[in-house]
Amino acid sequence: MSPRIGLDEQTLLRAAAELADEQGFEAVTLASLAQKLHVRSPSLYNHIEGLGALRAKLALYSLSILHGDLAAAVEGLAGDEAVFALGEAYAAFARRHPGLYEATLRAPDRKESELERISAEIVRLIVGVLGYYGLEGDSAIHATRGLRSILHGFSSIERSGGFGIALSVEVSQKLLISAFLAGIHVMKQEETGRPNPAAK
């Protein structure tokens, strides 16, 4: 097996990403990656410390793409329009990159500062979008957790083939997010004792 010319970390990550999307995140091993790149497994150690490091870098790579997709989707938008766009971009990423989506669910080790950083950036992005509704402190975090749970839960069920009835999943997701937003408006009204001016 002849070594591949031009092998570097980015080449490894792109190949690992393709492998993850084709076969699943757990299918990404040093042996499977070496086979895909037509190199011997030991040669990968010139660029990666081992399987754990490879999967951590793949998780970072995946989160970076997801963050970029979400940020692009909400640019110039606010309120309900931004929340719906966020949901659509999240679902599209999960459909387009099933293996990378799986990688984003890997809980970051506290020693992995870059993973923690990009994960925090995604949370800040969602908090920023929901900031339109005037939520602050604990309420903002609770709402962010709720929206993330909705998006992840919906995407996970869809990925597992759980929506078998021939109805539009896009419409289902929009209805779910609409219900979430109605709850946000109620939450704000209860906090302030007056209607949320962001409510439509």
Reconstruct the topology from this structure:
Blueprint: H1 9-23, H2 30-37, H3 41-44, H4 51-74, H5 79-96, H6 98-104, H7 113-130, H8 137-159, H9 169-192
Helix pairs in contact: 1-2, 1-6, 4-5, 4-6, 4-7, 5-6, 5-8, 5-9, 7-8, 8-9
Could you walk me through the main structural features you see in this protein, from its secondary elements to its overall organization?
This protein is an all-alpha fold and 200 residues long. The protein has a domain at 60-192: Tetracycline Repressor, domain 2. 70% of the residues lie in helices and 0% in strands. The chain has nine helices and no strands. Helix 4 packs antiparallel against helix 5 (79-96), helix 4 (51-74) runs parallel beside helix 7 and helix 5 (79-96) crosses helix 6. It is elongated and about 65 Å long.
Largest sheet: none
Any idea of the CATH class of the domain at 60-192?
Answer: Mainly Alpha
The radius of gyration computed from the alpha-carbon positions, rounded to a whole number of angstroms, is 20 Å
Mean pLDDT: 89
Briefly note the CATH topology name of the domain at 60-192: Tetracycline Repressor, domain 2
CATH homology group of the domain at 60-192: Tetracycline Repressor, domain 2
Architecture of the domain at 60-192, CATH level 2? Orthogonal Bundle
User: Given the helix and strand composition, which structural class is it?
Assistant: mainly alpha
Q: Proportion of β residues?
A: under 5%
Q: Helix content range of the residues, please?
A: over 70%
Contiguous low-pLDDT stretches (5 residues minimum) are none
H and E order: HHHHHHHHH
Number of helices: 9
